[in-house]
Write a structure and sequence with these properties.
The chain is mostly helical. It is built from three helices and no strands.
């Protein structure tokens, strides 16, 4: 099975690192070092998918403070 969606691929990689950590193949420190860049990229991809959607605009625009002079 090939995963073509980059977000799903990175989530699968995170899952594999977690399994290695839980089985004792890698330490907690090694696990955290390995997942940090992947986790950041997942965050970027998730935000990119929301950037131009009405959900993001609708949830943030009403909370934007208005400048008063």
């Amino acid at each position: 099975m090939f995963i073509t969606n980059p977000l799903k691929l990175m989530q699968k990689i995170l899952e594999e690192y977690y399994q290695q950590y839980m089985s004792g193949e890698i330490t907690e420190k090694e696990y955290l070092i390995q997942i940090k860049p992947i986790d950041k990229e997942i965050g970027k991809l998730e935000m990119a998918t929301l950037r131009d959607t009405l959900v993001l605009r609708g949830s943030f625009l009403p909370h934007t403070p208005k400048l008063k002079y």
